[in-house]
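Posting for a labmate who doesn't have an account.
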Amino acid sequence: MNFQTDNPANELHTLRDYIRWAMTCFKQANLFYGHGTDNPWDEAVHLVLNAVHLPWDASHHVLDARLTTQEKQRILTFIRRRTEERIPLPYITGEAWYMGIPFYVDQRVLIPRSPIAELTEQLFSPWLRPGPVDHILDLCTGSGCIGIACAYQFPESQVDLVDISTDALKVAQKNIERHELTHRVHAIESDLFAGLSGKRYDLIVSNPPYVDLADFNSMPSEYQHEPKLALTSGSDGLDITRKILREASQYLAEDGLLVVEVGNSEQHIIDQFPQIPFTWAEFEKGGNGVFLLTAEELAQYARYF
């Protein structure tokens, strides 16, 4: 679609018109979907409604509402950025949803999509021991979505959001304030555990960088807009994960639980640590590559890390 010569605003008038037209543009551009939607129709609905400040699940009755010239131009700008620049939709709208919770995002952080959400909804049962969960660590937090979701699920807890990126922590702080959790959720700049001396956690959850170089180089162009620091970690994607495995036991309570996502690098870690009895979560909603280890298991197999 040539936005320089075509003038669709002369022919399109309603939200429904623009949703239909946006879907056509997306299909012609052969976009990749993986940052909140998985098909052009849902992507078009989210884009058009967000452009006019309507919720994505607004009543279908509003779809025949006519648009002002300014609203039309805003929608067209969104469509152009999505199709010509291949910018993932949440970066255009400034919002992503995780576990049914809205989060502010921009290109300083990854777009939330971790399957850890499903474990969080289940309170990490049956692996997390019963009883109060007082202290939670979200390591490599990015936008803060995992830790903030945990804060909702464990309302008695104090949650630390840790990242090495100052820019990412600014986004995380914005989300802490958005959800009015400043009294329980705290953003901390730290290179993994380096700034957490003396702290112990009942639950450590981490979605660290884990994409190996081969996968990174073959990823769709949409992913090139995400911070490389948050995606890659050495040639096999596991430099940071290995460090987490070596150090986590020093920061877990005696009956604590470590949960780490390694995605498609799952086989790499199995091959490197064949002695370790990783528990690999199974997901009904899709996803893979999330392992769980108790503090006792980490201590028992520490010599292998």
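Reply:
Got it, the structure tokens are right above this. Strands lie at 95-98, 101-104, 135-139, 158-163, 185-189, 201-206, 252-261, 279-280, 290-294.
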